[in-house]
Amino acid sequence: MKRHESLVPLSRDHNVALMMAQRLILGRAPNPRADWPTDRTQQARRLLAFYESDLRAHFEIEEAYVFPAVRALLVDGDRQVEALIADHEAMRAMIRGIEADPATGLDERLPAFGHLLKGHIQREERQLFERLQAVCEPGVLDALGAEIAAAHEATCLLRVEDEESRL
User: Fold this and answer.
1) Is the N end or the C end of the chain the one with fewer CB atoms within 10 Å?
2) pTM higher than the cut 0.85
3) Which CATH architecture has domain 5-166?
4) How far is it, in rounded angstroms, from Cα 123 to Cα 82?
5) Over the stretch 39-61, which tens digit does the pLDDT of each residue have?
6) Cα separation of 80 and 128, whole Å?
């Protein structure tokens, strides 16, 4: 099913996150010309930076806008949302663990994060978004899309302001 425009910003985020997941799983970039370090400590730094610049806000947008809609609109929405929130919490805990100890066990921890992130995204894209699109009236999806777009825009503005403040 073609992705409804309201969910496209999140699907774009998912595409970027899937590239990160694949690199973490493989320990290298699938494209040999990509700028991806082979050193796991440097990869951990990249993951932490990606979490701060992209993934944290993505999780917050899903939790603030998408998940409440899923709870309200899907018969088993509560169950689905609880499983997805558990994934978010597990990834947040893994990030805190890497922040606390950015060098130990990275050959196991980084691929584990990558597998969790990949599976999470696949569940959202293949199950959650598909079902949400099938059940929702276009106006409901349009309203949800407006909230997602506004939150995405605010997040981008905050990133720009943060980067400008570092200059």
Assistant:
1) C
2) yes
3) Up-down Bundle (1.20)
4) 13
5) 999 999 999 999 999 999 999 99
6) 8
